[in-house]
C-alpha cells in the first residue's frame, strides 16, 4: 500500500466560493477511496467547518502556486498528487497501481507521471518501460494539472509566486523545453475521475454522475451549464485535441503577451 510519508493528495485551487464542491468531492472520495492511505489536504483561501473528507487544511489567501507550495511544505512528502476543484472520482482507486506508478517514478527519477491518456502533447515510447509514453518538454500541455503524481521538489522549484494553474499549463509547458526533466504518461493505469464542473457551472456529465450515485446537487449554489455553452466548450476541447500546439501558442499570445 501507499505509505503516508511518501505520498498524499492535495485538493488544490479549492477557493471558499467553491465550498459546495467540498461536499461533492468528499462524498465520492469516501465512496471510492474510503481506505486511502494518502493524506488529503485542502488548499483554500478561507475554510468553513463541515463534514468533509480532508485530513488537513492549508488556509492561504494567495495565488494558486503559493497555495500549492504551502500545501506541499505542510505535507512534507517527496511526492504529491494534485486534484482540481472541478473534478470528481468516478470509480474505486487501485492503490496497487498507484504504488507501482510511484515506484516507477522513484526508479526513473521522473518529475511527473500523468495518470490518464490525453493525446494533446507530443510524446514518444519510453524506452525503459512500455507502460509509459515520454512527454516531450516544450510541447503543448506537457505540464498539466490533470491527475498525476509529482515530484514535490520539482513543483517547489518550478512554481513561481503569483502563477496561476493556467500559466503553469499553457505558458510553462513551452518554457520548459530545455529543462532536463522526465515527464511520463501512463498507459497501464487511468485514474478514475471526470471533469464535473467547468467555468463555475455543472456539466451534464457531472449532473448525471451525481444523480446516478444518489448525490443531491444544490443548484442554488451552482447552476447547470446551458446546452449552448456546453456545446461551445466541447467544440473548444476538440480544437485543442486536433491542433494543440497552435491553440497553445495563440492562447499564450492573447492571454500572456508572450
Helix/strand/pairing category: alpha/beta
* N-to-C order of helices and strands: EHEEHEEHEEEEHHEEEEHHH
Q: How much β-strand is present in the residues?
A: 15-25%
Low-confidence stretches: 1-6
Q: Helical proportion?
A: 25-40%
Number of strands: 13
CA radius of gyration? 18 Å
N→C terminal distance: 44 Å
Strand order of the largest sheet: 3-2-1-4-9-6-10-8-7
Would you write up a description of this structure?
This protein has 258 residues and is an alpha/beta fold. 37% of the residues lie in helices and 19% in strands. The protein is built from 8 helices and 13 strands. Strand 1, helix 1 and strand 2 form a beta-alpha-beta unit. Helix 7 crosses helix 8. The longest helix is centred in the C-terminal third of the chain and has 16 residues, at 227-242. It is globular, with a radius of gyration of 18 Å. The model is unreliable at 1-6 (pLDDT under 50).
Amino acid at each position: 500500500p501507499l505509505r503516508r510519508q511518501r505520498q498524499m493528495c492535495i485538493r488544490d485551487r479549492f477557493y471558499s466560493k467553491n465550498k459546495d464542491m467540498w461536499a461533492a468531492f468528499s462524498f465520492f472520495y469516501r465512496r471510492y477511496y474510503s481506505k486511502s492511505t494518502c493524506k488529503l489536504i485542502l488548499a483554500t483561501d478561507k475554510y468553513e467547518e463541515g463534514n468533509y473528507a480532508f485530513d488537513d487544511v492549508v488556509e492561504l489567501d494567495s495565488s494558486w502556486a503559493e497555495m500549492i507550495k504551502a500545501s506541499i511544505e505542510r505535507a512534507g512528502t517527496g511526492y504529491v498528487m494534485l486534484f482540481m476543484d472541478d473534478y470528481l472520482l468516478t470509480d474505486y482507486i487501485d492503490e496497487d497501481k498507484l504504488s507501482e506508478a510511484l515506484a516507477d517514478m522513484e526508479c526513473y527519477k521522473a518529475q511527473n507521471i500523468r495518470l490518464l491518456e490525453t493525446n494533446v502533447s507530443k510524446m514518444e515510447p519510453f524506452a525503459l518501460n512500455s507502460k509509459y509514453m515520454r512527454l516531450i518538454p516544450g510541447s503543448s500541455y506537457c505540464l498539466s494539472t490533470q491527475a498525476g503524481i509529482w515530484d514535490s521538489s520539482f513543483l517547489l522549484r518550478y512554481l513561481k509566486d503569483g502563477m496561476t494553474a493556467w500559466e503553469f499549463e499553457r505558458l510553462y509547458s513551452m518554457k520548459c523545453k530545455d529543462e532536463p526533466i522526465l515527464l511520463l504518461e501512463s498507459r497501464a493505469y487511468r485514474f478514475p475521475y471526470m471533469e464535473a464542473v467547468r467555468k463555475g457551472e455543472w456539466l451534464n456529465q457531472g449532473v448525471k454522475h451525481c444523480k446516478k450515485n444518489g448525490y443531491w446537487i444544490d443548484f442554488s449554489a451552482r447552476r447547470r451549464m446551458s446546452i449552448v455553452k456546453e456545446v461551445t466548450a466541447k467544440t473548444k476541447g476538440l480544437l485543442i485535441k486536433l491542433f494543440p500546439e497552435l491553440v497553445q501558442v495563440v492562447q499564450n499570445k492573447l492571454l500572456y503577451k508572450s
